Amino acid sequence: MKTKNKLVRMTKVLSMALMIFSKIYWYKLRRKPQAEWDKLWVQIGTNFRNTLFELEGLLIKVGQILSTRTDLLPKPFIKQIEDLTDKVPSSDWSNIERILKDEWGRPIHSIFQSIKKEAIASASIGEVYQGVLKNGARVAIKVQRPDIHSILKTDFRSLAIIIWFADHFVPVPKGFINFKVLFKEIKQVIERELDYTKERQTLGSFSERFKDMNDLKIPMVYQEYCTSKVLVMEWVDGIKISSIKGIQSIDRRKIAQSLIELFLPQWLEPGMFHADPHPGNILLSKEGKIILLDFGMVGEISKKDAKHFQGLIESFLTKNYSKTVDCLSQLGFLLPEADHRTMEKLLEELMSFELSQLKEIDLIAFKRDLNDIIQALPIQVPTRYIFLGRSFVAIEGIILNLISEDDVLELVKPVFTDWLNKEGNQKWSLVWQWIQAQPIFKIFHSIQQFLQLPHKLEDLKEIEQRREFQFTVYETYKKHLFQLSLLGIIGIAASIFTSHLILLYFSGGLTSISCIGYFNVTHKQKKWMRYMHEKRR
After folding, report:
1. Of 482, 485, 474, which Cα lies nearest the Cα of 521?
2. Scanning 60, 105, 347, 414, which has its CA 20 to 30 A from the CA of 232?
3. Strands 121-122 and 126-133
4. Which helix (H) or strand (E) holds 497?
5. With contact defined as beta carbons under 8 Å apart, do 351 and 316 qualify?
6. What Rg, from alpha-carbon coordinates, does the chain have?
7. For residues 371 and 374, what is the distance between their CA atoms, to the nearest angstrom?
8. CA-to-CA dists, residue 113 to 129, 172, 275, angstroms
9. Distance between CA 456 and CA 310 in Å, rounded?
10. Closest among 419, 438, 435, 437 to 427, alpha carbons compared
11. Long-range interactions of 125-130: CB distance < 8 A, separation 24+
């Protein structure tokens, strides 16, 4: 790590956060135009990126997670951090050797014929070395970085302070983003990566799950040499999946199909999925097999979520948009203010084309337009699906680097059909979805909605009026208190400069009272937001 000193790391992180919050509030008070806001977010993104590269550690991973939140964060900010890489200088071999001896309880030469003292890969949490066991087997040795627990503890503490401040002082509706949940999930992911025992178990789980896939190679684990800080795996030779495009002898279409067959069940079925399948973690062997590496970052889909995901896809195929909206709601994609009937009509217009017309559509432009539509609608990707989206986007990019968009559509359809026909994938539910999509069912649904409409409109009108008025009141109070705080701070600075004791007391009192008032109003506003969120359900 470039900066191991705890105080220095914490000071730099908190200073960066304070600078960001201050500038945002200043622009908000001055009501800057959109063009100025875009410039500000570029500046904030640049400073954020530079600080991450300077401090490394947990912060690089936080930046990688935030870069996937295009549904929540401004595009100019995302653009500055979207290509963050987790690469740091390797540690001194003497420190690594000490960790290996402590973990194994014996000298290294009693286990290895040889071991290279230079890391072949080095990230913020672990490093990978190459060695040869006494029996002649080549292995990859993944070792945790020295003092990583202490560094991450400091970073977590800094991040917890920032999250607390954002949760209490940034007026974001509870249905939009939950800062506490975001922090909890980041912490869970990092802590999982710190325990190599869990990665070893995940390797075993994936090997068993895809044992019948002949085109896949997952490294074997040497259980007897693995600990919570050391992971010893079979060494596998291969080239990066991103480096094969120029090799004519390779059947890129077949590789793309194998990738779809490998990852589609991970995204749609209950169980774990690989959350970090970037090109460096997917290799191709001389035999043409896909080699999947690094199972430190994984996600998990529950049975309930898998059922709703399958229902979502089936409802799209049968054009049953009432069921589509219901599945989106069950999965947590809809914000509290989303009107289901309006969402149904928008989806019907959006998906008015036939599947056979997909070949005639510019998919890149369509996806860009779809992202803009999602940002304009009351839709938000729940925090727990961040890594699922990350996995999908990574594989999508790899496949499009191998074959054309038209070929992707031709490959996905048969693979998805085969998956749908597998036992246990709710084959008959597709038929029921189709029946529900028929006009007679839509008539009954419309009658039910019509009878409930007057009551819903009355409640909605009352809630929205109260919400708009009360939110304006709270924001006005906070604006005035914030201005008084700034005035008090200026007064304190002036009193120190002029040595005016009375002005110092007055300014200090004004600052204290306004800060307490600001905190109190913010607390009341958040309680009110929770109440309104419950009323909307």
Report:
1. 474
2. 60
3. antiparallel
4. helix 439-498
5. yes
6. 27
7. 5
8. 14, 58, 35
9. 30
10. 419
11. 125/152, 125/190, 125/193, 125/194, 125/296, 126/193, 126/196, 126/296, 127/90, 127/91, 127/96, 129/96, 130/235
Closest CA to 244 of 295, 293, 286, 292: 286
Task: Give the three-class secondary structure for 140.
Answer: strand
Q: What is the DSSP letter of 106?
A: S
Question: Is residue 240 within 8 Å of residue 194, measured between CB atoms?
Answer: no
What is the b/e burial string over 161-183, where b = at least 16 CB atoms within 10 angstroms of the residue's CB? ebbeebbebeeebbbebebeebb
The maximal CA–CA distance of the chain, rounded, in angstroms, is 84
Give, for 272, the enclosing helix (H) or strand (E): strand 271-274
Question: E strand or H helix at 107, and its extent?
Answer: none
DSSP label of 396: H
DSSP 206-271: HHHHTTT-TTEE-PPB-GGG--SSEEEEE----EEGGG-TT-TTS-HHHHHHHHHHHHHHHHHSSE
Distance CA 295, CA 196 (A): 10
What tens digit of pLDDT does each residue of 326-377 get? 888 888 777 666 677 777 777 776 666 554 444 454 544 555 555 555 555 6
Residue type, position 306, single letter? A
Distance CA 102, CA 94 (A): 12
CA distance 258 to 422: 17
Report the 3 state secondary structure along 66-103.
Answer: HCCCCCCCCHHHHHHHCCCCCCCCCCCHHHHHHHHHHH
Identify any residues that bridge with 292 across adjacent strands, giving them in sequence order: 282
Secondary structure E strands in 293-411: 298-301
Q: What is the pLDDT of residues 262-295, one digit of tens each?
A: 998 888 788 889 988 888 889 998 888 999 998 8
Asked if residue 132 has pLDDT above 90, the reply is yes
- H/E element, 130: strand 126-133
